[in-house]
What does this fold into?
Amino acid sequence: MGIRTSALMLVAALMFSPAMLAQEHAVSGQAILKLTQQYVDAAPKRYIGSPGHDAAEAFIKEHFKPEVAKGNFIDDRFMARTPIGPLTMHNLIVKFPGKKDGIIVLASHYETNYWLKDIRFVGANDGACTTALLIALGQYYREHPPQGYSVWLLFTDGEESINKEWTDQDSLYGTRHIAAKWSADGTIGHIKAFVLADMIGWKEMNIDRESNSTPWLLDLLAKAGRDTGHSKYLFKESQAVDDDHIPFRMRGVPVLDVIDFEYGTADNPEAYHHTELDTMDKLSATSLQVSADLFVDLVKLINER
Ligand SMILES: [Zn+2]
It folds into this structure.
């Protein structure tokens, strides 16, 4: 019996090995790269108030028709007080209900900087590729509904500052708003982890040990690196980053910022950051594969914790 089973399994493995290999990657880095290109083509400039910003929202919504139909796509519209006056902003939330109480939020900002509106800034790595990553993760959770905690995708608006100089008052508009809203309605108490993706498509990516993140989530990220064989893409640098996880961290939610802040050349490690050089040619399917593998594994590990 044992031998027969093994023989059958061997035959099955030989017959189905391409499918099994494909299953190793729940989400395809190549597909994310393609989606990023489509997003950048549809909405090259996505600063708040621009036609591109509307196009970006439409692009995201278009990819979640089944969730829109089920009422699991939420347009969280709000008015933000900014240095240039009140501006309407929108967070977009997509819910994939799980089987046990608790929510894992996966987030990325989708807009580009207002203060870069007059240059050709497309934010391929800064905003676009992580928006595509979230869309691709959503496609995966649609096909494989969460068996544990619910997974909510949060496409945040107004992460970037309006003025060039970043301040606490002029940045993180979307997450400051939604963290307050979810505190008021009690949602925040159900959030087991808030995991942020930012600038993780660069072909030379190495994800920082981001020190505003919660230690046990950094440990899980390290474990995800080992599980997926991607440890070499992790933790060459340690630094604290002000990002969309901060408003949640301030409210006691466990947070993780999966980010590679350095984005440039040896001479100037920020040469591509917030410049016209943040373009599609800087990205690679390999880095996006690494990021996707890490996110899928992190969700699994948070559930097992
Ligand atoms: Zn940015």
Remarks:
- The chain has nine helices and eight strands.
- The longest strand covers residues 85-96.
- The chain has one domain: 27-304.
